[in-house]
Amino acid sequence: MWTTVLVSGITLGSFYTLVALGFALIFGVTHTFNLAHGELLVLAGYVAYWLWKTYGVSLLFTFPAAILATLVVCLILQRLFSRLREPMEMNSIVLSFGLAILLQNGMLFFFSGDYRLIRVPTFNQGLHFNTLYLSYGQLTLLALSLLVIGLLYFLMRHTFLGKALRATIQDREAASLAGINVGGMGVLAFAIGAILIGLAGPLYGCVHYLYPTAGLQATLLAITITIFAGVGRIRTLILGGWILGFAESGAVVLLGASWRELVGAVMLITLLALRPQGIFEREQ
Amino acid sequence: MLCCKRFPIIACLLLLAFWCYSTFAVAATIKIGEINPLTGRLAKQGSEIHQGVAVAVAEVNDRGGLNGRQVELISRDDQSQPDVAISRAEELCGWKKVVALTGGYNDSLVGPISEVAKKYEVPYVASASLQKQLTQRENPYFFRVANLHGFVQPLCGILSESLRPQRLALLHTATPGSTEFARDLRSCLQSRGIAVMLMEKFRPGTPDFTPLIAKLASMNMDVIVSSGFFADHLLLVRQLKENRVSPKAYIGPFGIAYESFVREMGENAEYLYSTFAWNPGISNPGTEVASKDFVERFRSMFHREPNTTNMHGYTSTRAVLAAMQNVLHQKKPLTGPNIRQSLAELDLVLPMERVAFDKHGDPHHYQHLVVQIQKGKFEVVYPPERSTASAIYPMPRWSQRK
Fold first, then answer.
1. In the list A209, B42, B175, B223, which could disulfide-bond B165, CB 3.0-4.6 Å?
2. What is the mean pLDDT of chain A?
3. What local confidence, expressed as pLDDT, does residue A232 receive?
4. Residues B237 and B315 in one domain
5. Are residues B161 and B189 in the same domain?
6. Tens digit of pLDDT for each residue in B289-308?
7. Which residues of A touch B80 (CB under 8 A)?
8. Which chain A residues touch B211 with a CB distance below 8 Å?
């Protein structure tokens, strides 16, 4: 049972990280607190659902369309957010809250309030490793999440663009003085964020389900993991995701299903009280 | 020129005529209010209740209204939020002066509306409410067409008489109705010698059931009863299959017996058990014609098949309209106390149930049927006198299916 719980925790945690990455990157670079993050994720899921249901497009080929849709919306959002004045965090909360409601009602209008599910039959099959059973759904989730996180890590650590992004996350003014186009980095962060959301959305429609207000949960998740790992700490997000995923899964087995959210909340409050800079962040 | 001089007079006369027409036309209508979650997390269910309400009002208006007066339905959206529900109820009862209220989904929204209705002495017949506490508050203006008893009795019956599981798990969501349901079902089962080996509470919308499934598998549960909602079943059943956990029966009293559930789940919905109070083709005996009429009218208005939630909205509104009709027949004014009295004395046979309320406002005859999905259709498997097919028990293991 515990191996199942461990695998479940890691799979779920990896997916949590994929959901949170776009939010963390955009927040780190632009200081935009995007409360519509979850709605964008659900929108990407709906685009994939629509293609799958209407035209029979396989899940794999829905990703480009979902990415394109979120890219367009995210770049529009970036233009809107770039017009905001300081305090950026507070103003972006107000704007993105309104945008979240707008997106929710738009999705309610176009897709109705019905729960939607992208069915991938192969996700229900799987592999046995002694007592452990891993479904292809879990494997896909794990592999794709790790691949994307790995690619992003490589981009951030080993490319000039990534170094410029990291510099902007660490200190916008210093980055600007060093000749980095901070505004351009903002556009880039939104674009990368859109790609990450566009990848996570269709998966969300497969492993969870879609409905217009489902985004709130994803937004809260992204905020929690970002706080957990420390703002701008892309590398440690995955550890944060795994710890949260495993803690939630362990709580269900040890304490009962009703303790799941409480354990996550207690961890977050404890962290905010003891290490507000993030669990792996060094105190400055 | 002459025409130009007379233009102001003609315009005034036209305006006066329009004002008189609209005033008398409005005065001739009877206003009833309806509050439902049309947006937010309960938008799906709220919209379905609203559609049922709309069918009932259209039906009575097409028949000439109540004593020749058309019924005007004023719909409001509570956005799935209790505070908004209160303000909408205040608006309808205090400002719009509706004579009765209907609709409503979920106790967290119905409860606050019922308190406002009591304050204004406006009778409220809720469409979907289960929590026992709501009818124990001594609110003479609150009635409902559903209650927990209607779910618990048939499930307790099939579990104790037919399935008789050795190891039963009872999962429920952290909502008042679902929790009360689980407690009542456990009491009923225990009184009939069936032990509940595991009782677990989870939050509606839980993102992953795998750890809970691992726990169920380790305890080798043979029957799972989950009083989660539509979305919870979507995830839980799919993850049961992913993890190759095959109980002998999976029973979800809320949220499974819907065409949309079968559509979304596809073949994974096969053999699942659920309950409904009504479905197209399966209605209260003796009401087949009325049921067919409802289905046809619903199809013509909304271009799809109605479901049991739609019927709850229809039934509660029909109860309100029938009570008002009785008041008018007795040549009494349509006041809150008169309609309340009429509701208390109501005895009306409708496709979903025979509507009659006890002294607390709970329905006397609300009873669900236990159904199993077989070849994509809902087959009634309990009670025996209304069954349309035999229950397939144990359901085939996931590995034995195509």
1. B223
2. 85
3. 61
4. no
5. yes
6. 999 999 999 999 999 999 99
7. 213
8. 4-5, 8-9, 248-250, 252-253, 257
CB contacts of A123 in chain B (<8 Å) are 242
Q: Is B270 among the domain residues?
A: yes
Tokens of A16: 């949590």
How far are the Cα atoms of A61, B49, B97, B202 from residue B34, in angstroms, in the given order?
A: 44, 10, 12, 31
- Asked if residue A81 has pLDDT above 90, the reply is no
Task: State how far the Cα of A246 lies from the Cα of A226, in Å rounded to an integer.
Answer: 17
Q: Tell me how far apart the alpha carbons of residues A70 and A8 are, in angstroms, rounded to a whole number.
A: 28
A217–B39: do the CB atoms touch at under 8 Å? no
pLDDT band at residue B400 using 50, 70 and 90 as cut-offs: confident
Which has the closest alpha carbon to B122: B31, B26, B24, B27? Answer: B31
pLDDT in tens, B12-31: 566 665 555 444 444 579 99
Q: What is the ipTM, given to two decimal places?
A: 0.77
Pair B159, B123 in one domain: no
Residue B380 and residue B235 in one domain? yes
Predicted TM-score of the model (pTM): 0.81
Domain count, chain B: 2
Return the amino acid letter for B46: G
Q: Is B318 helix (H, G, I), strand (E, B) or coil?
A: helix
Smallest CA-to-CA distance from B311 within B352, B349, B348, B274 is with B352
Q: What is the pLDDT of residue B132?
A: 86
Give one DSSP letter per residue of B196-246, joined into a string.
Answer: EEEEEEE-TT-S--HHHHHHHHHTT-SEEEEE--HHHHHHHHHHHHHTT--
Residues 277-336 of B with CB under 8 A from A: none
Q: Mean pLDDT in chain B?
A: 90
Helix (H, G, I), strand (E, B) or coil at B347: coil
Residues of the domain holding B161: 150-276+369-400
Query: Same domain, yes or no, for B265 and B289?
Result: no
* CB of A106 less than 8 A from some CB of B: no
Lowest mean pLDDT among A134-143, A186-195, B259-268, B320-329: A134-143
What's the CA gap between B344 and B123, in Å, rounded? 10
What's CA A220's distance to the chain center, in Å?
A: 10
Do the Cβ atoms of A116 and B264 come closer than 8 Å?
A: yes
Residue A39 has pLDDT above 60, yes or no: yes
- What CATH number is attached to the domain comprising B385? 3.40.50.2300
- Within a 13 Å sphere around the CA of A134, how many CA atoms are in the beta-carbon half? 17
Q: For B66-92, how does the pLDDT look when each residue is reduced to its tens digit (9 = 90+)? A: 989 999 999 999 998 999 999 999 999
Question: Where does the pLDDT of residue A262 fall: very low under 50, low under 70, confident under 90, or very high at 90 and above?
Answer: confident
Tell me how close the Cα of A249 comes to any Cα of chain B, in angstroms: 5
Same domain flag for B256 and B389: yes
Q: CA distances (Å), A15 to each of A167, A202, B185, B204, in order?
A: 27, 12, 37, 20
Are residues B49 and B116 part of one domain? yes
The encoded tokens of residue B63 equal: 């028949």
Residue B5 counted as domain residue: no
Shortest Cα–Cα distance, B308 to chain A (Å):
15
Q: Which of residues 206-265 of A touch B (CB under 8 A)?
A: 208-209, 211-214, 217, 248-250, 252-253, 256-258, 260-261
